[in-house]
Amino acid sequence: MKPLRNNRAERGSTMVESALVLLTFLLLLIGTVDFGQLIYFHQSLVERARAAARYGAVNPSDTAGIQNVALYNQSMTPNPPSSVLPGLTSAMISVSNPDANTSSARVVVTISGYQINFFSPYIAQAFNNRPVMVAVSSETQTP
Description:
Structural class: mainly alpha
Number of helices: 3
Number of domains: 1
Order of helices and strands: HHEEHE
Shape: elongated
Strand order of the largest sheet: 1-2-3
Helix content: 40-55%
């Protein structure tokens, strides 16, 4: 039986194969992390908009309170003010309730302009930051 020998060519091809596999693995890992981050932040924004819209369904005329629920998870501004999501500001949240005093009032909460930092420049180029919009009918009773 002959002993196995490692040639220089075999060592070189092992390095090339390892580099290709490592590169592919890192690309998949970074893409998975970026996609997970995108899903997490989008779902967090939807949850914030829904919470604010639920508050607005009961209190349709309290526009500042609706914004505070989206920002701070409470209707009053806390001291010190710290947002539930990093980078979320009141300028990104718009509340629309045109018929606040009628029984057919609808509260529309829109969160737009939230920036997400990606690791991969290719995913960042493909990402279009669409606004999150939630509309809820008002539950106020008219006399």
